[in-house]
Amino acid sequence: MAYFVKEIYYTLQGEGTQVGRPAVFCRFSRCNLWSGRESQRSQAVCQFCDTDFVGTDGPGGGRFPTAKALAEAVRTAWGGDTDEHSKPYVVCTGGEPLLQLDEPAIIALHEQGFAIGVETNGTQKAPEGLDWICVSPKAAAPLMLTRGDELKLVYPQPLAPPERFQDLAFDHFLLQPLDGPDRDTNTALTVDYCLAHPQWRLSLQTHKYIGIR
Ligand SMILES: C[S@@+](CC[C@H](N)C(=O)[O-])C[C@H]1O[C@@H](n2cnc3c(N)ncnc32)[C@H](O)[C@@H]1O
Ligand SMILES: Nc1nc2[nH]cc(C(=O)O)c2c(=O)[nH]1
Ligand code: SF4
Ligand SMILES: [Mg+2]
């Protein structure tokens, strides 16, 4: 199977429990909850997306004909050491990565020495072998993935309050302020919710504050 990838680049994980960890970001094209076209945002199931995932024209992006070719491109983006002190890490995101990320890709990435994280909207089943699963539920989308390593809810979503997710089988529960024109207000609301409900921790999108991607 061929893989369609918007961009592949090396940066720091900006969000969630693994914040600050060097990682190759492999951003798959396409999402099942929005076409990616601005003209269709207001009709989309997920309307707050902060990401361009359309096409394959970003840095390091392209159509990769095989899992091996994809994994080699990820390895090239890592560049540096792969000794026992610096096991390489890839974050598969998108778009919705679980529309494309399959077991052959996971095997090929493991063969290149990578631990594999995924950022998913939780509407698809996850293939075997992932090392870190971050689920970020969207209010209007059915949640299929009800277990994983972290649940990272964008807050506030009036139709998806944190109470709906607090008993699911995740090790970490995070609230991430909804970015957009009301980011500061949403950050204050998120702080208040975490203070009142200490099961939840604040996840800031740190890369946006320090000007990295
Ligand atoms: C662009 S999504 C791609 C992965 C997957 N489709 C998902 O939604 O989880 C990556 C992360 O950014 C979050 N995100 C997207 N738009 C956001 C926004 N406007 N404010 C805060 N977080 C946002 C998503 O909830 C998700 O955790
Ligand atoms: N630095 C950085 N960290 C991230 N963590 C999750 C991201 C995503 O878009 O999935 C993201 C991103 O876009 N950039
Ligand atoms: S599900 Fe993820 S990639 Fe898809 S539109 Fe929403 S935030 Fe963007
Ligand atoms: Mg992002």
Automatic annotation (TrEMBL):
It catalyses: 6-carboxy-5,6,7,8-tetrahydropterin + H(+) = 7-carboxy-7-carbaguanine + NH4(+). S-adenosyl-L-methionine binds at F48, C49, D50, G95, S136, P137, K138, Q176, P177, L178, D179. Substrate binds at L12, Q13, G14, R27, T93. Mg(2+) binds at T51. Its EC number is 4.3.99.3. It is an enzyme of class 4 (lyase). It comes from the Bacteria. Binds 1 S-adenosyl-L-methionine per subunit. Binds 1 [4Fe-4S] cluster. The cluster is coordinated with 3 cysteines and an exchangeable S-adenosyl-L-methionine. [4Fe-4S] cluster binds at C31, C46, C49. The keyword Metal-binding applies. Keywords: 4Fe-4S, Iron, Iron-sulfur, Lyase, Magnesium, Metal-binding, Queuosine biosynthesis, S-adenosyl-L-methionine. One of its GO terms (molecular function) is lyase activity. Pathway: Purine metabolism; 7-cyano-7-deazaguanine biosynthesis. Its cofactor is Mg(2+); S-adenosyl-L-methionine; [4Fe-4S] cluster. Residues 18-213 form the Radical SAM core domain. Catalyzes the complex heterocyclic radical-mediated conversion of 6-carboxy-5,6,7,8-tetrahydropterin (CPH4) to 7-carboxy-7-deazaguanine (CDG), a step common to the biosynthetic pathways of all 7-deazapurine-containing compounds. This is 7-carboxy-7-deazaguanine synthase.
